[in-house]
Write a structure and sequence with these properties.
Blueprint lengths: L12 E8 L2 E2 L8 E6 L4 E5 L2 E5 L3 E5 L6 E4 L3 E8 L11 E4 L2 H11 L10 H12 L5 E2 L2 E3 L4 H12 L7 H7 L4 H12 L3 H18 L4 H7 L5 H12 L3 H4 L2
Antiparallel strand pairs: 1-8, 2-7, 3-6, 3-8, 4-5, 4-7, 5-11, 6-9, 9-10
Length: 249
């Protein structure tokens, strides 16, 4: 299936599968929209406007023509639904959605025939069942928006490199030659989040990435800046509805 060029395939909607080793893929774009799902591990998907972390039982929706990059710390099976613009009933913005067991199995089944199916046949009906299920998928809060201002980009880059960086907003603002008040105002304006919310989301997504690679909760919690494991678990459960152990079960 991986030998098919998804931009040249004849069918409007189809699913392709490929096995990958741990990777940091190249930036690229497709003319079709994509629903990207990995059956194991955690994906990190970056666009020029932000990043999404995609744990198991989740998928990321990428709009047509959106440049993006996919990375993972573990080997994984990737199954991607490709759809002509407007053919799949999903939001008009990139997002992570929950994927139930039925949709997972449907994607696996559809990937076995890929784009090689006849309109009106059983394969086409299976594709239609997938499309009928898509509006029921709930959006998950696993997005970190990227600021545009050069000063904010410098701060965001430093914190992304080291989520445990203990510096205050005022200290970080000083490193880029501006004031705490200016940075606070711009973060809210450009990302829709306060700086504190943005930093918590960064740490949460960094934790998901590492937990999905098999690291222990205690190591991850301390490495991303929490003083104790219980505080991290409380924040994790508040954001995602489960403890880390149950979330990855």
């Amino acid at each position: 299936m991986a030998l098919i060029d998804p931009d040249q395939a004849e069918r409007e909607v189809f699913v392709l599968a490929e096995r990958y080793d741990p990777l940091e893929g190249p930036w690229h774009a497709h003319r079709r929209a994509q629903l990207i799902h990995a059956s194991e591990g955690v994906l990190t998907v970056r666009t020029h406007t932000g990043l999404w972390v995609v744990p198991p039982q989740r998928a990321v929706w990428i709009l047509p023509g959106t440049a993006h990059q996919v990375s993972s710390r573990k080997a994984f099976w990737l199954r991607t639904l490709y759809a002509e613009p407007g053919a799949a009933p999903l939001p008009d913005a990139c997002c992570v959605v929950g994927v139930d067991r039925l949709v997972t199995e449907l994607l696996i089944a559809a990937s076995e025939f890929g784009a090689a199916y006849s309109p009106g046949g059983p394969e086409a009906r299976l594709i239609q069942v997938i499309l009928d299920r898509l509006p029921r998928l709930e959006v998950a809060p696993l997005h970190l928006p990227s600021p545009r201002d050069a000063r904010l980009k410098g701060i965001a880059s430093a914190l992304t490199t080291n989520p445990a960086d203990p510096r205050t907003l005022g200290e970080l603002a000083a490193t880029v030659g501006t004031t705490e008040r200016t940075v606070a105002r711009l973060f809210l304006k450009e990302t829709g989040l306060t700086f504190g919310q943005w930093r918590r989301q960064l740490r949460l997504l960094a934790a998901l990435d590492r937990l999905g690679a098999g690291e222990s909760v205690s190591n991850v919690a301390l490495d991303i800046g929490y003083e104790d494991v219980s505080s991290f678990i409380a924040v994790f459960k508040s954001a995602l509805g489960d403890t880390p152990a149950r979330y990855f079960r």
